[in-house]
Amino acid sequence: MLIYLTLPLIVAAAALIAGATPATWLAAALGAAAAAWRARLAGSAGTRMIVTLDPLAPDSRLVLAALREALRQLARTRHVVSLRTAAFRATAHPRLHLSLSRDGDLEIHCDGARVQRLRQPGIWIADHPLPLKLPRAHCLTLRFTPADGGRVRVALAAAAPLSRRGWFAVVFVIAAACVCDAASVLAGALGFAAQTYLLEHHPDRPRDQQQVKAT
Questions:
Q1: d(C-alpha 86, C-alpha 138), whole Å
Q2: Which of 51, 116, 192, 193 lies 20 to 30 Å from 39 when distance is taken between CA atoms?
């Protein structure tokens, strides 16, 4: 919900800074929209997988099987793999969460069930909080990327970050717009930059999963 509240503020701020004309308002909105589309297209790259648990009797073994398949796909293709987990429950129990054992092996905990282990110690590089709880009201997407030494970096899926070269280009456009007094270009660049930053720094939100709700 926060992202939908901040988007109008981003557009308004960019337009006001650039001069608050109809043209700057339109340019700021288009810049923010372009950032959102860039993030969506970049985030859809690679292999996408989905695992859905029974809401009445969620089985952590199904999550484990999906994680192992995601790792196999990553090892085979060496491309990014995204795994979306839908673990809807009507109540807070059973609770499911991921953690790492002392030897660095992934563990899946579920109330009243045996702890499931990946049995690949040392491979999982957790770029996410631990323990990582699987929410019961919306989906959670993990993004797997290959790392050196056969290891795997796993993070909560967020908008694909803009490269350093990309940020340099945005800053250059903003500076050039100021020098040339191009208000519309300035508004569009500011809207794009602000929306890109917002998307990159909200990794916990279900960006493309807001419409998926428990039934």
A1: 7
A2: 51
